[in-house]
């Protein structure tokens, strides 16, 4: 189980399993994901920072983008990972030295090649349209040729588990062909993602009787078993695990390394990345999601912001006594954090925990805290939702317990929209507010009423609070709370804002979308000012 394996530099740690990341190739085949060369270079460096052993950069024979990636990655020094290039066996009837795909692989400049070949006889006949014997020759010739070039060769046995179940003997013959040719790893692929964990276990046990060459696992998630299948494979002797960050990949995705790595290290005691790097896992997960322009799964195990979030009052009451009551591990170990949500399901414990987290001393206000909880539940009943708007919640609590000072006061606000005969829409917001003894009266235009309101408010405040120019809106969401009321329905506006260092969320609710937006924008600005003033 804890046998040491070679493959990547480890900063002193002995790895029990080698992590092979294929986010840049297999992950990029996920719907809605399209990496640029710059994206791939950034992700590669972040994966190396995490400490994976292999980074599959792409298929150099398939497109100009991957060729450029391999050209540029040569200039970047990686501390932990080896960059690999992916390719297929030679084509049927083509001499290996004349195969253009393999020539492109050699031209990529990598020292490790990952070659996939057919192990399912059905695919050999239907997809390759060649004989079973020629397919074995294709595997042998390709692996042998690359080994003669001095390369490390990882052989990916495509559709292995389906092939094994369909034709046990031929699937094993393909592995023998790769092994005899000198392959360094035999990776068993559940390409269609339909194999069950107990099948994985039995088949790997069978394979182990025939081979001493290190085995790997490459699982897809079509039955939601990719993580389980990968862990079962390791328990049965596989020493390389292939997968992607956040489980990105074609169809239902690949095995999610953000779950596999901590399960191996924290549950099985098998080192998959340098131990000191595990705390970077959440950071890397969110970074890759941002580069991929994909929303991060809030409930994703280990790394989702909701993975250690607690809402029920009974749960929080227990957490106050010992976090192990409702958490399987310390979230900080994977770079995440505990979150206690205050909502209509909350009890007094939630509020006390949140107050403690914010540094508010409210423990002596027992009667007052119960009033605050009651008020929160009434507001949430009206549609105001604090669990996704921590900044608004902190402002509310500080106000409720007299620990907040207003930075400005609104006197008057007017929003004007005009649509002319050319279908052009113009919006203007006129605002009057006071800051201390000073009165500010300004106007600003915008692309719409909310943008005009935001511009006008910023214009009025920036003279006194120049810090506002450093923040920007990163997301704006509107949800209709009760569609049965038609255009008179209450709406909830959730705004995410950020400056150079932090990000925060605020919320507003009203029958008027402008008023709801105003509430959220004002909270966002007040939160920034409150934080900046407390630091000065």
What would you note in describing this structure?
This protein has 536 residues and is of the alpha/beta class. The chain has 3 domains: 18-292, Alpha-Beta Barrel (TIM Barrel); 309-381, no CATH class; 416-464. It has helices at residues 37-50, 64-73, 100-107, 121-128, 132-148, 160-166, 168-180, 197-208, 226-235, 257-267, 281-292, 313-321, 348-357, 366-381, 390-400, 449-461, 513-535; strands at 18-21, 54-58, 82-88, 112-118, 152-158, 185-190, 215-219, 240-243, 309-310, 339-340, 409-419, 425-435, 438-446, 472-480, 491-498, 503-510. The strands form 4 sheets. An 8-stranded parallel barrel has the order 1-2-3-4-5-6-7-8, surrounded by 8 helices. Strands 11-12-13 form a 3-stranded antiparallel sheet, covered by helices on one side. Strand 3 (82-88), helix 3 (100-107) and strand 4 (112-118) form a beta-alpha-beta unit. Helix 5 (132-148) runs parallel beside helix 7. The chain starts with 17 loop residues before the first strand and ends with a helix.
